[in-house]
């Protein structure tokens, strides 16, 4: 940089002790750089005065109003502020170039925020890790004071069961279900039953109490026991009634077996294989499945059963089959099994229950009279009609019986009773006994080649 002062050029030189001035050719200059008149004296970064008025002879002074660097720099604005601040010499000693930094490299000023952010992140991570570690320690039983289970008052929604749920129905019905044990000449028979009245009448199967000498023991849902006596039974319908020496019992609610539809949900209760208070679930698989059961040489049982796929095994006999509302719609009685031996029989998804409308009617008869009325049509059945699955032929008709009153004669082939098709002689017997005495049913029959319909009023036969 060159300056012109009163026709004399001065040069600024960088020496080890600061900025000095000289004339071209080597004449030393004053120790302070020139400044414009009236301008403040410039300082270095450390506050050292480098300019200002000078007493050195021949050097430009701060009070010289007549000098201008425009004499040597014609492009410079003569009216711009002209205070010249000379920066401090670079660090590193004479002759060393000023260090150059990568503009993308972090500087000392940038490390502060980065360090602060890192510190805050580390603190937050530590707090989170501590909280999670404490939670895992508490849940896993590490450390002191392990808490098991949910806090009081926060039971899972599944535990808040509605009364119409399966669990709600089971809770309502189980107190009315009993286990029946009977000892006799053939050993001990174990079955199930259910309370039909508050004064102690219990419904069960005839084959559960058939070995009894008139005495039985009943075990309730709560484990208490009571003696019972056999009031009466109807072997052909497989229904029996026993009386418990206890009052204040909780009876079941009866449903309507005629209102069932295939696919309705059902629950089966009882003591299968002596496992008391067992509940299984299924659906109604079929209706009016005619059953002809019994041991060879023993009593043959007929009824139009409710078929279900609810698991029913030995010991369930006599227990209730209930609908989705907890109302009894059947009495579990028979199972189909692949085993030839009855002792080894097990459930294969085919179980049968006596319709409750029939079982309830027989129970009422036994309680009222000690005997059950049997519904009859007043005819004797023979072989099926000509052709497979074409009906049931009447081999004889009682002159004063219901069939004769309806116009039926021996030799007629009954095709349908109350809309149900007949294929086997047992079908007619089972479907007739399903109805109460006095019921009027429609009968479709064939006489020769003619198909005809008639109405028959069923009657009762007491044996």
Automatic annotation (TrEMBL):
PANTHER family: SERINE PROTEASE FAMILY S1C HTRA-RELATED, SERINE PROTEASE HTRA2, MITOCHONDRIAL. Keywords: Hydrolase, Membrane, Protease, Transmembrane, Transmembrane helix. Pfam families: PDZ_2, Trypsin_2. Residues 366-423 form the PDZ domain. Residues 15-63 are annotated as: Disordered. InterPro entries: PDZ, PDZ_sf, Peptidase_S1_PA, Peptidase_S1C. It comes from the Bacteria. Belongs to the peptidase S1C family. This is PDZ domain-containing protein. SUPFAM superfamilies: PDZ domain-like, Trypsin-like serine proteases. The keyword Hydrolase applies. PROSITE patterns: PDZ. The chain crosses the membrane at residues 114-137.
């Amino acid at each position: 940089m060159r300056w012109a002062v009163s026709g004399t050029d001065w040069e600024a030189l960088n020496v080890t002790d600061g900025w000095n001035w000289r004339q071209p050719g080597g004449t030393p200059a004053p120790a302070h750089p020139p400044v414009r008149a009236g301008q403040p004296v410039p300082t270095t970064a450390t506050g050292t005065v480098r300019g200002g008025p000078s007493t050195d002879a021949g050097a430009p002074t701060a009070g010289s109003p007549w000098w201008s660097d425009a004499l040597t720099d014609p492009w410079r604005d003569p009216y711009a502020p002209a205070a010249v601040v000379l920066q401090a010499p670079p660090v590193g000693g004479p002759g060393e170039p000023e260090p150059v930094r990568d503009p993308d490299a972090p500087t000392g000023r940038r490390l502060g925020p980065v360090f602060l952010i890192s510190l805050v992140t580390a603190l937050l991570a530590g707090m989170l890790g501590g909280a999670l570690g404490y939670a895992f320690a508490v849940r896993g039983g590490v450390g002191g004071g392990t808490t098991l289970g949910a806090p009081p008052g926060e039971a899972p929604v599944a535990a808040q069961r509605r009364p119409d749920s399966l669990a709600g129905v089971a809770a309502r019905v189980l107190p009315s279900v009993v286990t029946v044990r009977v000892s006799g000449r053939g050993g001990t028979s174990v079955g199930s039953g259910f309370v039909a009245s508050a004064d102690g009448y219990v419904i069960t199967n005839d084959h559960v109490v058939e070995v009894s000498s008139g005495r039985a023991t009943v075990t309730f849902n709560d484990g208490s026991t009571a003696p019972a006596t056999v009031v009466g039974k109807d072997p052909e319908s497989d229904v029996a009634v026993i009386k418990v020496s206890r009052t204040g019992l909780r009876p079941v609610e009866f449903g309507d077996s005629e209102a069932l539809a295939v696919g309705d949900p059902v629950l089966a209760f009882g003591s299968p294989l002596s496992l008391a208070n067992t509940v299984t679930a299924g659906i109604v698989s079929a209706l009016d499945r005619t059953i002809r059961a019994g041991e060879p040489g023993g009593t043959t049982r007929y009824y139009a059963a409710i078929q279900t796929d609810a698991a029913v095994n030995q010991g369930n006999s006599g227990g209730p089959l209930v609908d989705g509302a907890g109302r009894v719609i059947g009495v579990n009685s028979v199972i189909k099994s692949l085993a030839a031996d009855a002792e080894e029989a097990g459930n294969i998804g085919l179980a049968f229950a006596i319709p409750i409308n029939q079982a309830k009617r027989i129970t009422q008869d036994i309680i009222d009279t000690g005997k059950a009325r049997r519904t009859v049509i007043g005819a004797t059945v023979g072989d099926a009609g000509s052709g497979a699955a074409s009906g049931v032929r009447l081999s004889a008709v009682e002159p004063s019986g219901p069939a004769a009153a309806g116009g039926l004669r021996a030799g007629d082939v009954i095709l349908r009773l109350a809309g149900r098709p007949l294929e086997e002689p047992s079908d007619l017997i089972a479907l007739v006994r399903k109805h109460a005495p006095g019921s009027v049913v429609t009968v479709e029959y064939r006489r020769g080649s003619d198909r005809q319909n008639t109405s028959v009023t069923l009657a009762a036969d007491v044996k």
